[in-house]
Amino acid sequence: MNHKILLSLILLSCLLVSTTIASAAKPIINADTTYYDVNTGLYMLKGNVYIEVSNRIITAGQAKVSLNSLEVWGSDGITLTQDNISLTAGSVYVYGSQKKAVLDGGVTFKQPDLTISADTADFNWRTKLGTFNGNVQITQGDKKWSADSVTYNIITNTLQ
User: Fold this and answer.
1) CA pair distance 32, 19, nearest whole angstrom
2) What domain count does the chain have?
3) CA 47, 50, 54 angle in degrees (round to 5)?
4) Structural domain that includes position 76
5) If 63 and its partner were Cys, which of 2, 12, 45, 130 is the partner (CB 3.0–4.6 Å)?
6) DSSP per residue over the chain, as a string?
7) Tens place of pLDDT for every residue, the chain, 160 residues?
8) Burial (0-12, 13-18, 19+ Cβ within 10 Å), 19
9) Considering the entire predicted model, what is its pTM?
């Protein structure tokens, strides 16, 4: 399996909260089981999935990657950490060609002085906007409030 191509697609989900594309650093990819399913055309990573490149780390219980459609499915506890950003969700579906992703199963986004939790979130890394929906709870500094939906601009660090 070409780990660099596989990692590039998996890292699309990392770009949800990132403002830059990962450099050419050699990735570290670990999983209990890694294989290519010729029947579905999917690369399968199962059990203790760990992907690290530069300062970005992703973990999941499992992940599937389609090189043809540039789609990534991750589930069983998604975590992403990079610099001062942390993101957790139950699952993620990445539409690589559209440069967007949908997170579900309880989403929590954290960085210094800001925490947003919601039922679901949509991220578009072209616009650098994350929209959080359902039971949204925001803590910014000393302020706490609730909303049905909120959009966060990663570049300007502003809520809409």
Assistant:
1) 31
2) 1
3) 170
4) 3-159
5) 45
6) --HHHHHHHHHHHHTTS-SS---SPPPEEE-SEEEEETTTTEEEEEEEEEEEETTEEEEEEEEEEETTTTEEEEEEEEEEEETTEEEEEEEEEEEGGGTEEEEESSEEEEETTEEEEESEEEEETTTTEEEEEEEEEEEETTEEEEEEEEEEETTTTEE-
7) 444 434 434 444 444 333 334 344 566 778 999 999 999 888 899 999 987 767 778 889 998 888 778 788 889 999 988 888 889 999 988 887 888 889 999 999 999 999 999 999 998 878 989 999 999 999 999 999 999 999 999 889 899 8
8) exposed
9) 0.78
Task: Read off the amino acid at residue 110.
Answer: K
